[in-house]
Specification:
It is built from three helices and six strands, in the order ααββαββββ. By secondary structure, it is an alpha+beta fold. It is globular, with a radius of gyration of 13 Å.
């Protein structure tokens, strides 16, 4: 079964170069959603979330995620890894855990990102 968190990772790989995918990525989040990024201040609402992803996607020319989503106690927990290429040409890899809460319509209301460099 595909979840909002599965779709989030699928879209994250292409949303930097596909405007429709970026719009679909934004539509995964409820209007009152909050993202708690690893090590930086939380972002809130549609404009804050759009700015967060715009900044992230504009730093990177290529991303490839792999993940596994598991429902746990009313939340979706994803173990993930990503390899990417920054616009500078530098390559990187990260792994971590994302924890998402969703509302009754399946939209993400809270996303916590815990990344660890690998």
């Amino acid at each position: 079964m595909s979840t909002a968190l599965d779709r989030y990772f699928e879209l994250s790989d292409i949303a930097g170069t596909d405007e429709a995918a970026f719009g679909e990525l934004m539509a995964l989040f409820a209007d009152d959603a909050t993202i708690h990024p690893n090590g930086v201040a939380a972002v809130h609402g549609p404009s804050g979330i759009a700015e967060f992803f715009d900044s992230f996607l504009n730093r990177n020319s290529e991303l490839r995620h792999v993940w596994t989503v598991t429902p746990e106690e009313g939340k979706l927990v994803a173990q993930w890894a990503v390899a990417g290429r920054r616009n500078t040409g530098e390559v990187f890899a990260l792994a971590g855990v994302d924890i998402a809460e969703t509302n009754s319509t399946g939209k993400i209301t809270r996303l916590e990102v815990k990344a660890n460099p690998s």
